[in-house]
């Protein structure tokens, strides 16, 4: 009977456990809600032992102290690793007979007490989010990847305090969220012991360690340090003053706007080669992609603005996202919208000569439209049932469309009301968590507009409206706002229109809005969001328009070209070339050159391209050499490098690369030389081996050299070498440095290679789900865009749609991202084939 009694007891125990929150992979919404009610006052003491050898395992120990409201149910800790990574679990009564199932350490009720508990866990760290390189590493835990490294409660609304100790090689530097308490040199290297952090969500806990150079500055009484690995000391010196000043200016601006002093114990940051994102806002230890802050000589105006905007974005996160954090990742967009929205305000005084409405327009609208015009458009706010799908929430809609929405919201309630509402929001939820409805309730109480209803269309639904004008039966000119999906929605918004009599503000809150007369240009201030008609005469008279009107017209013209059949690609090309020839505003010029590249790569058929190729190259070369402004010269240099195809043009690039020809306004950096060598190897495959070998000998930066060696096989003229490289991407370890993998995919699917690269589309799509599981948040979209953005054949598009048809139950979020990524290829396919048939 003993075995039977044991079995019955086991079954009873299992049943009692199953009555609690289901044990399943990831962090379900149900589990998160249950733990948020049951866990309080969480504190982690984490120790990691990191060897210089990147193949050596990282041993760890974590002590977790917490208050438990109810100890009647088993407790789930998150640890996405194999069971053999857990070595021991101890509690107040000694060793715990835990279970390990579905990415969770399960602590039985009899090992828990009401009130204060302590668990000690010895483990081997998982490394998928520790980004180990030969002599440095950095953790990146957003959105739910802390659980891949060590056991914890990995959800944003269980804020905790972290006390970290790192044993590392003696010559390594290290930073984390909290200030350094002490550094001990021992026989095994250096032990960094950090103070206890401020209350922090698990996805924001972070550390960086490795062979970095450390630079510190004292600015207005605030000590700021940065870590970097750049070997070009002149580049570092050239950029340091601006980097520190931009951070300080952003902090001061945010303190003034919010009325809340910088809320964390310290402010440091690390510049990381080939970092996955532009930046990540870990409090006290921001991480940046090094090339985003350490700019080459003669940067473009856009690069300078983007650097300032990125720094302002990450700094604004200290209040929006770090001080007040979303409760669940369905509201991840709330931290991103405020970071981008505030960044646009912060950089205004830093660049007094820039038309900042134009900058906002160029930074946000093209990317937002790229999704909203597609069949994969998604709402700003989306549902989320499990944090293991949270990475799929990210994309242009939350980063680019949401700030456009927020600007319209500020116009609706008024700038001062908006600001005081945000100040109340930050004070009410400081070091806690909030939802979008929490903020809307605060603003709604201060506004006469029904903001809850307003928000339902802008935030909870996908897509954009279209606009047209008509003459009513009463001979009144009317602006018509239409829902392209036929759902009868209205996007309440305000924008200006230019009439013969002057510019007037229009508020479009209904389907039909009376306006004074037939406008010369709708949305001439670029504030409106949607598909606006463009008058041909307005395009011809662009030289008479101001900067903002020209910028808005350029974006609206591109959207009309893509969505309507009014204009052939070669006709739009003429308009673009005319604009590029005379445009003096760098932001508009950059957008025009971007459109030129996409037309050239995707929309011109072979005959059209051959007809204009030489004259295009001549124009870009002439503008490159005659431009007096270094930033403008770099725009033409970048465009020429990507578009050049003729023998004469490639010879010109070869002379630049070899140093035979010197450009006074664009001194070539090591990165410039590498990019030139790579494009020359691709365009001149017969010489690729020699070009790449020569370039490799000249590379001094070890991080750039490792990247160069990684992408080199994709530039080979040998098809088998390229095929073997692509097949190697099936192994997660071969795509671990995601920026390199995307660069390599971009070369495999380069416009010059699309006929040869179609065979990679289907296997690339078949890998997507694994890419999502093993990669960081932007990697799936980057993978898709690198694969599909340059495709333009009906067969390539059909491969994508056939893939989706055969998988009716495919992950909905990934389905949307596929449809977003294939949108340009679909439009290009229709355009090229239509024009070819006409010819």
In total, the number of strands is 26
- Number of helical regions: 29
What is the percentage of strand-forming residues?
15-25%
| Rg from alpha-carbon coordinates | 28 Å
What is the SS-derived class? Answer: alpha+beta
Please state the average pLDDT score: 95
Give the strand line-up of the largest sheet.
5-4-8-2-1-10-13-12
Share of residues in helices: 40-55%
Shape verdict: globular
Summarize the main sheet.
8 strands, mixed
Could you give the distance between the termini? 88 Å
Low-pLDDT runs? 1-18
Molecular structure report:
By secondary structure, this protein is of the alpha+beta class. The protein is 45% helix and 18% strand. The chain is built from 29 helices and 26 strands. The strands form seven sheets. Strands 5-4-8-2-1-10-13-12 form an eight-stranded mixed beta sheet. A five-stranded mixed beta sheet has the order 15-16-17-19-18. Strand 24 (493-499) and strand 25 (502-508) form a beta hairpin. Helix 7 crosses helix 8 (396-413) and helix 15 (586-603) runs parallel beside helix 17. The termini are far apart.
Give the SSE layout.
Blueprint (H helix, E strand, L loop, with lengths): L1 H17 L10 H10 E11 L9 E10 L6 E4 L7 E6 L2 E2 L3 E3 L2 E4 L7 E10 L11 E3 L21 E9 L4 E4 L3 E7 L2 E8 L10 E4 L2 E7 L2 E7 L4 H26 L8 E6 L6 E2 L5 E4 H4 L7 H16 L7 E3 L5 H15 L9 H17 L23 H18 L1 H14 L3 E3 L1 H9 L6 H10 L4 E7 L5 E7 L9 E7 L2 E7 L3 E3 L21 H5 L6 H17 L5 H14 L3 H18 L2 H21 L3 H14 L3 H12 L11 H14 L4 H11 L3 H10 L7 H10 L9 H11 L5 H4 L3 H6 L1 H7 L4 H10 L5 H12 L6 H27 L1
Parallel strand pairs: 1-10, 16-17, 17-19, 20-21
Antiparallel strand pairs: 1-2, 2-8, 3-7, 4-5, 4-8, 6-7, 9-14, 10-13, 11-14, 12-13, 15-16, 18-19, 22-23, 23-26, 24-25
Helix pairs in contact: 3-5, 5-6, 6-8, 7-8, 7-13, 8-9, 9-10, 13-15, 14-15, 15-17, 16-17, 18-19, 19-20, 23-27, 26-27, 27-29, 28-29
């Amino acid at each position: 009977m003993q075995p039977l009694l044991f079995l019955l007891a086991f079954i009873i125990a299992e049943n009692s456990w199953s009555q609690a929150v289901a044990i399943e992979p990831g962090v379900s919404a149900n589990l998160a809600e249950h733990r948020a009610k049951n866990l309080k006052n969480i504190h982690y003491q984490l120790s990691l032992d990191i060897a210089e050898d990147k193949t050596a395992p990282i041993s760890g120990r974590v002590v977790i102290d917490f208050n438990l409201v109810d100890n009647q149910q088993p407790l789930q800790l998150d640890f996405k690793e194999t069971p053999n990574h857990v070595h021991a679990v101890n509690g107040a009564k000694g060793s715990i007979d835990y279970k390990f199932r579905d990415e969770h350490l399960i602590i039985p009720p009899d090992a828990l007490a009401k009130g204060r508990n302590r668990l000690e866990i010895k483990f081997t760290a998982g490394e998928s989010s520790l980004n180990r390189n030969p002599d440095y590493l950095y953790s990146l835990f957003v959105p739910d990847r802390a659980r891949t490294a060590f056991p914890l409660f990995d959800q944003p609304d269980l804020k905790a305090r972290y006390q970290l100790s790192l044993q590392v090689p003696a010559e390594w530097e290290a930073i984390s969220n909290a200030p350094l308490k002490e550094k001990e040199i021992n026989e095994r290297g250096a032990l960094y012991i950090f103070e206890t952090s401020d209350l922090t969500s698990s996805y924001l806990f972070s550390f960086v360690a490795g062979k970095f150079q450390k630079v510190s500055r004292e600015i207005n009484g605030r000590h700021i340090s940065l870590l970097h690995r750049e070997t070009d000391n002149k580049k570092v010196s050239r950029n340091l003053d601006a980097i520190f000043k931009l951070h300080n200016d952003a902090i001061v601006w945010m303190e003034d706007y919010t009325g809340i002093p910088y809320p964390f114990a310290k402010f440091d940051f690390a510049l990381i080669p080939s970092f996955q994102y532009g930046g990540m806002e870990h409090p006290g230890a921001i991480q940046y992609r090094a090339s985003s802050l350490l700019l080459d000589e003669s940067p473009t105006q856009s690069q300078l603005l983007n650097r300032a905007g990125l720094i302002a974005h990450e700094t604004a996160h200290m209040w929006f996202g770090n001080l007040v954090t979303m409760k669940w990742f369905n509201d991840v967009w709330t931290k991103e919208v405020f970071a981008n929205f505030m960044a646009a305000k912060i950089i205004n005084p830093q660049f007094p000569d820039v038309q900042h409405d134009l900058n906002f327009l160029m930074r946000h609208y093209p990317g937002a439209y790229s999704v909203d015009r597609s069949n994969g458009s998604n709402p700003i706010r989306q549902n989320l049932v499990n944090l293991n799908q949270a990475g799929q929430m990210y994309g242009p809609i939350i980063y680019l469309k949401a700030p456009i929405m927020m600007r319209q919201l500020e116009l609706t309630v008024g700038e001062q009301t908006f600001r005081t509402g945000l100040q109340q929001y930050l004070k009410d939820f400081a070091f806690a968590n909030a939802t979008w409805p929490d903020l809307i309730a605060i603003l709604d109480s201060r506004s006469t507009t029904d903001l809850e209803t307003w928000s339902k269309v802008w935030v909870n639904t996908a897509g954009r409206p279209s606009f047209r004008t008509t003459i009513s039966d009463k001979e009144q000119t009317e602006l018509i706002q239409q829902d392209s999906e036929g759902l009868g929605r209205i996007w309440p918004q305000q924008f200006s229109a230019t009439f013969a009599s002057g510019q007037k503000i229009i508020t479009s809150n209904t389907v039909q809005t009376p306006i004074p007369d037939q406008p010369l240009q709708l949305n001439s201030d670029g504030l409106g969001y949607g598909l606006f008609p463009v008058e041909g005469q307005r395009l011809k008279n662009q030289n008479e328009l101001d900067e903002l009107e020209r910028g808005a017209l350029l974006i609206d013209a591109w959207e009309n070209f893509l969505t309507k059949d009014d204009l052939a690609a070669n006709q739009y090309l003429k308009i673009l070339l005319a604009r590029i020839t005379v445009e003096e505003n760098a932001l508009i010029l950059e957008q025009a050159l971007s459109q030129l590249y996409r037309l050239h790569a995707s929309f011109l058929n072979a005959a059209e391209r051959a007809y204009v190729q030489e004259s295009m190259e001549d124009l870009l070369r002439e503008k490159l050499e005659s431009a007096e402004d270094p930033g403008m010269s770099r725009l033409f240099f970048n465009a020429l490098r990507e578009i050049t195809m003729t023998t004469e043009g490639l010879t010109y690039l070869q002379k630049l690369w070899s140093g035979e020809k010197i450009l006074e306004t664009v001194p070539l950096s090591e990165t410039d030389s590498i990019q030139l060598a790579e494009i020359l190897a691709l365009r001149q495959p017969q010489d690729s081996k020699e070009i790449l070998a020569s370039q490799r000998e000249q590379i001094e930066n070890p991080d750039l050299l490792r990247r160069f060696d990684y992408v080199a096989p994709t530039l080979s003229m040998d098809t088998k070498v390229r095929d073997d490289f692509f097949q190697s991407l099936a192994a997660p370890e071969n795509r671990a440095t995601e920026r390199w993998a995307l660069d390599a995919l971009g070369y495999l699917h380069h416009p010059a290679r699309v006929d040869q690269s179609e065979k990679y589309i289907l296997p690339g799509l078949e890998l997507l789900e694994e890419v999502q599981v093993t990669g960081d948040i932007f990697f799936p979209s980057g993978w898709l865009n690198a694969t599909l953005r340059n495709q333009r054949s009906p067969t390539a598009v059909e491969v994508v749609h056939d893939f989706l048809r055969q998988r009716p139950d495919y992950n909905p979020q990934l389905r949307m991202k596929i449809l977003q990524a294939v949108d340009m290829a679909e439009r290009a396919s229709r355009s090229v084939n239509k024009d070819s048939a006409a010819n």
